[in-house]
Amino acid sequence: MQHFVNVILPIPLAKLFTYSISEAEATFLKPGMRVAVPFGKSKIYTALVNDIHNNAPAAYKAKEIHQILDDRPIVNEIQLQHWRWIADYYMATLGEVFKSAVPSAFLLESETLILKNHAYDVDENTLQDDEFLVFEALQHQTSLKVHEVAAIIDKKNALPVLNRLLEKNAILIKEEIFEQYRPKLVRYVKLGKEYLSEDRLALLLQDLTRAPKQSQVVLSLFQLQAGNLKPIKVDDLEKMSGGSKAVIKSLIKKEILEEYFIQTDRVNYDEGVENISIKALNEYQKKAFEDISENFEKGKVTLLHGVTSSGKTEVYVKLIEQCLRSGKQALYLLPEIALTTQLIVRLQEYFGEKVSVYHSKYNVQERVEVWKNVALKKDKAQIVIGARSALFLPFSDLGLIVVDEEHESSYKQFDPAPRYHARDAAIVLATLHKCNILLGSATPSIETYFNVQTGKYGYAEISRRYGDVLLPDMELVDLKEETRKRKMKGHFSERLFNEIGETLEAGEQVILFQNRRGFAPVVECTTCGHSPQCPNCDVSLTYHEYKKQLRCHYCGHHIALPESCPACGSQTLDTKGFGTEQVEKELETLFPKAKAWRMDLDTTRGKFGYEKIINAFEQQEIDILVGTQMLTKGLDFRNVGLVGIMNADTLLYFPDYRAHERSFQLLTQVAGRAGRTKKRGKVIIQSYNPYHQILKQVTTSSYEEMFKEQLYEREQFKYPPNNRIIKLTFKHKDYNKLNEASEWFAQALRNVFGQGVLGPEYPPVARIRNQYLKNIIIKIPKKQSMSKTKNSIKRISNSFNAIAQFQSVRIIYNVDHI
Ligand code: ADP
Ligand code: ZN
Ligand code: ZN
């Protein structure tokens, strides 16, 4: 009898691939193990075993696998089921899920890798345009594959460019099969053997009196050593002694110190964190806890709806504690892990080493470690805090999932596929594990609250802030009025200006929110009306004053700010609109004594960017923090007396059916940063439309009213939650081809679904990175089957792909969250 294995390849293929295996291999292999397989002419991929069987494929002759890579599964059966659901529901392939679910170190493959040549300083001026694109891409990425390079320069064949770059010594090429994972070695020091006796030591210190820096290092080593036998890290010694690396190095050279290495986990519990006991819940929290427990007993997904600063986190902590006592694993999901330093510290204070963090900014090695700890059910990964990708960890015994800030749109993955929503995928994961799941928010999403209303989800509520601190006092300021009365100072109304002054006077801090980064989103010539556009995208370039640059926020294209109008030559370029940079700049003149800082994508790149700013603000080294929506996410500051919203209108008029819901959530969340402890905080919202219903609902904390109104509107226009939607985005660099292809597809869809098909239409930004975009939206009424709908779409897409001239048109599917 012949034996075969069906494998998942980490590529967007709709089908599983079949390879032949020997009898011995068939007995050994289990689903979830990795095998190296040949694919195409010369490629080798890491594939994952899906199932083992005896049926030869009908369409092709099965090749043999190259080798088995694991001696036990790295992915368990529950994960595979979860992946299948994700692939099916979000119209992605299993291969795409596989690829994004496991750390890339698990996907060894033989492909050419392009690396930057660090050993050689390239003069950028000697590079041609396409060479520069590749070179620049390598500044941000450690390596690129050949096909990625081809995409960057938008050419089929990247080899000529790469050859030229090679000649210029700008890049290196690396071709090998490799295991990327390497354990981390930490450098330690101890006193050299010779100096272990006290006499020798005394002599040494005498000798060193003439080298105070070296002597300081040796003394610090003693101090660190005092009373404990723990190994001493070079880093710690450096910090403690204030001595430089060079000083330590010279001591090692003289053999006064001896260095050695220990292999450690990269993701380590920070030993500086104190252990504190879990807080006793107040009566409102207790009530919520009981309601949650009751719903959990009924097996219900439950929403904890608690106003900002009501102590939701403490309720989660109690639930986690309970889960740990039963010996099960707990998963704490957050929308954006980068913003969670505060929370991580809080959980470590309670649970110590049991907390692991799965961080998108952690490197491959660090992620592999958490993965392995979870797979082995190690104590140190009993609680995992993570962003959406943490869903894919190899949990075998989950007892609880907390989805904090469940309304956050960053739970949706937009690129690449699978384009899943982590909250919804978490609910499915919870069902597979038969475990409890709690969704938490001060401003629940319409979908979730709807599910509560219909009785599908359980509900618990905390309607008071902890310590009975009042919700902030909110005030709307009419920018039209203020402008007319000439009371504006830059972008600050008199009200806001005065309040900032008073708040600073009282020794309290201020948060200012402006949902745009850069200095000004548009530069315009006041003579001819010309406004510089991105050559690759259909958007205006944003002015960044700090670098005197115009930048595209979609593709990164940037140019120096022209001195005069590129169209008419007049020196009348002016800015329109404003971003965080401009607010920060105005503060310098309006409040010269205050220390203002900016928190947005431009200031927080890199692993510790956020942390530094958040820490400095916590330590009150910053008086005024200006930021984009990064500011909204669950930060808990003690001393914020005032929150100012510079301009609420840009949020309200965003062309998206969720714009009003989002504005309500965003504004309520930012406002919630004010006055979290002790004193009531103040919030000032500036707007040209202060009578907008959403702004009124925000200032009066009328969640219910907002919900009812939005639900009604969604009903009217056949949007979720009562209906479902799928969006198809067509992408191509040829404008005509894109139009033709999307029309063809829309027509085919209309033949099946009739009225429910909208478009094709251009999105607000109709071209990004030289690719034109067009959307078709399919609205699916409640009674129409979702899976049948998707099958019809797939059938149409198969016919579409069979048409030669459409083959190069890409289609992207987004389900539910578009
Ligand atoms: P939320 O998550 O609802 O915004 P937090 O959990 O951050 O609220 O709580 C707000 C503040 O109140 C925090 O500083 C927290 O330490 C404090 N707090 C909440 N519950 C308790 C409690 N039961 N005992 C003591 N302090 C609490
Ligand atoms: Zn002009
Ligand atoms: Zn662009």
Automatic annotation (TrEMBL):
UniProt key word ATP-binding: yes
Main EC class the enzyme belongs to: isomerase
InterPro entries xref list: DEAD/DEAH_box_helicase_dom, Helicase_ATP-bd, Helicase_C-like, P-loop_NTPase, PriA, PriA_3primeBD, PriA_3primeBD_sf, PriA_C
GO biological process, any: DNA replication initiation
Chemical reaction(s) catalysed: Couples ATP hydrolysis with the unwinding of duplex DNA by translocating in the 3'-5' direction; ATP + H2O = ADP + phosphate + H(+)
Domain Helicase ATP-binding: 293-462
Pfam families recorded: DEAD, Helicase_C, PriA_3primeBD, PriA_C, Zn_ribbon_PriA
Residues annotated for Zn(2+) 2 binding in this entry: 534, 537, 552, 555
Cofactor requirements of the protein: Zn(2+)
Domain Helicase C-terminal residues, every copy: 560-725
An annotated Gene Ontology molecular function: 3'-5' DNA helicase activity
Summary of subunit composition and partner proteins: Component of the replication restart primosome.
Similarity remark: Belongs to the helicase family. PriA subfamily.
HAMAP family registered for this protein in UniProt: PriA
Function description: Initiates the restart of stalled replication forks, which reloads the replicative helicase on sites other than the origin of replication. Recognizes and binds to abandoned replication forks and remodels them to uncover a helicase loading site. Promotes assembly of the primosome at these replication forks.
Name of the protein this chain belongs to: Replication restart protein PriA
Organism for this UniProt entry: Kriegella aquimaris
